[in-house]
Design a protein that fits this description.
Helix content is about 45%, strand content about 15%. By secondary structure, the protein is α+β, with helices and mostly antiparallel strands. It has helices at about 5-25, 35-45, 50-65, 70, 75-85, 90-105, 115-120, 125-135, 145-155, 165-175, 185-195, 215-220, 275-290, 345-360, 380-384, and strands at about 235-245, 250-255, 265, 270, 300-305, 310-320, 330-335, 365-370. The two termini are about 20 Å apart. The chain contains 15 helices and eight strands. The chain is elongated, with a radius of gyration of 24 Å. Residues about 360-384 have low confidence and may be disordered. Helix 2 (about 35-45) crosses helix 3 (about 50-65). Strands 1, 2, 3, 4, 5, 6, 7 and 8 form an eight-stranded mixed beta sheet that branches. Bound molecules: adenine. Adenine binds near residues 51, 188 and 191.
């Protein structure tokens, strides 16, 4: 395994990347006048989502929460609502918690030290280095899966991006190529290069200004680097109950600590082996709500994709039993007010089916399939 890059080649790569970035940098809103807070928000959004999806969310977020103080004083629901559709909602909750910590411990500023940044929830080594280089000018490489792929190819390493030996080689080469004092542009040049030229699939080697320095290209390996881990989608069947009484709909809040923490959803759960969907729903309502429910007609059936799951979800209209609990986490909400309640995308699609049904357009059950949760496009599968 060839693991090193000579210093001359590394410096040449750094210089060419900067020259290319000077001419071809993408015009992205977080680059206009980067502040530590703006860089932080954009990097958190970009960590699992592609640029085109992030742009409108970033603009709305910065208009709504322009600085650490405004985010720290927002309530959880506002933060989740501004994030709705972007997926991986823990990111929004962590950002808000981190903003509060920055108010308490750093006078409302985003800290610049690696240690202080790593103490903030949701900030890992990649985001800390991105903030430090893009916003504070520290000479540091921000190494994510995109950048790792670029250097795996330049080095011609037939390894997975996560392989420990390969990662050391990648970091060594990326640090060697960093032009001192230019880390912000260098890191962003690598991000643009990884998404425009050295793409995960179908790399544009014919247009690449680094091709002659690329070991993978020289050996015709560019399509095999990085090696891909075989990923299989896990299939899950779920059912939910839609209770509607006098134009109000019954929803419950997801508990702290789990997936979709703090978001609202229709009650239900997983279908177990051998169960029919209706039986599964009756069981879930008994176990979770202590309510005896007889599911009625099917309102919607949809398939929803998360990073490693394919979820087949069936929603049934159900007569509401009197014993349904009502408390902080279980509410009857007027149908027209559900948009104030942050919801995972699949549940939002059920609301749309319910609205269509309520307007008399829903005589046939709604059947839809959507990849990636609506506006959200995760990039992990595509990039890693
Ligand atoms: N991906 C991650 N961070 C990015 C940035 N700052 N610009 C473009 N793409 C990115």
């Amino acid at each position: 395994m060839l693991c090193a890059m000579d210093a001359r080649t590394a410096h040449l790569i750094g210089r060419r990347l900067l020259a290319w970035y000077g001419k071809s940098a993408r015009d992205l809103p977080w680059r206009h006048s980067p502040t530590p807070y703006g860089v932080w928000v954009s990097e958190v959004m970009l960590q699992q989502t592609v640029v085109a999806t992030v742009i409108p969310y970033f603009e709305r977020w910065m208009a709504r929460f322009p600085d650490v103080a405004s985010l720290a004083s927002a309530d959880e629901r506002e933060a989740l609502a501004a994030w709705e559709g972007l997926g991986y909602y823990r990111r929004a909750l962590n950002l808000r918690r981190a903003a509060r910590l920055a108010m308490e411990g750093h006078g409302g500023r985003v800290p610049s030290s690696q240690a202080a940044l790593l103490n903030l929830p949701g900030v890992g080594p990649y985001i800390a280095s991105a903030i430090r280089s893009l916003a504070f000018g520290k000479d540091e490489v921000a190494l994510d899966a995109n950048v790792a792929r670029v250097f795996l190819r330049l080095l011609g390493l037939r390894a997975e991006a996560g392989d420990a030996t390969a990662r050391r080689a990648i970091r060594g080469a990326a640090e060697q190529a960093l032009p001192p004092g230019r880390s912000g542009d260098y890191n962003q040049a690598l991000m643009d290069f990884g998404s425009l030229i050295c793409r995960p699939r179908r790399p544009r080697c014919a247009d690449c200004f680094l091709a002659e320095k690329c070991e993978a290209f020289r050996r015709g390996l560019q399509h095999d680097v990085p090696q891909r881990t075989a990923g299989t989608l896990k299939r899950i069947r779920t059912v939910v109950a839609v209770f509607v009484t006098d134009g109000r709909v019954y929803v419950q809040k997801r508990p702290p600590g789990g997936l979709f923490e703090g978001m609202w959803e229709f009650p239900g759960g997983k279908v177990q082996g051998g169960e029919t969907p209706r039986r599964a729903l009756a069981r879930e309502c008994r176990e979770e709500l202590g309510a005896s429910v007889t599911p009625g007609r099917k309102l919607a059936e949809l398939t929803h994709y998360y990073t490693v799951f394919e979820v087949r979800l069936r929603a049934f209209l159900c007569p509401a039993p009197p014993e349904l609990p009502e408390d902080e986490a279980h509410r009857w909400v007027p149908l027209g007010e559900l948009d104030r309640y942050p919801m995972p995308s699949a549940n939002r699609r059920i609301v749309a089916a319910l609205e269509a049904h309520a307007q008399g357009q829903g005589s046939a059950p709604v059947r839809r399939s959507r990849r990636g949760g609506g506006a959200r496009r995760t990039r992990r599968r595509a990039r890693a």
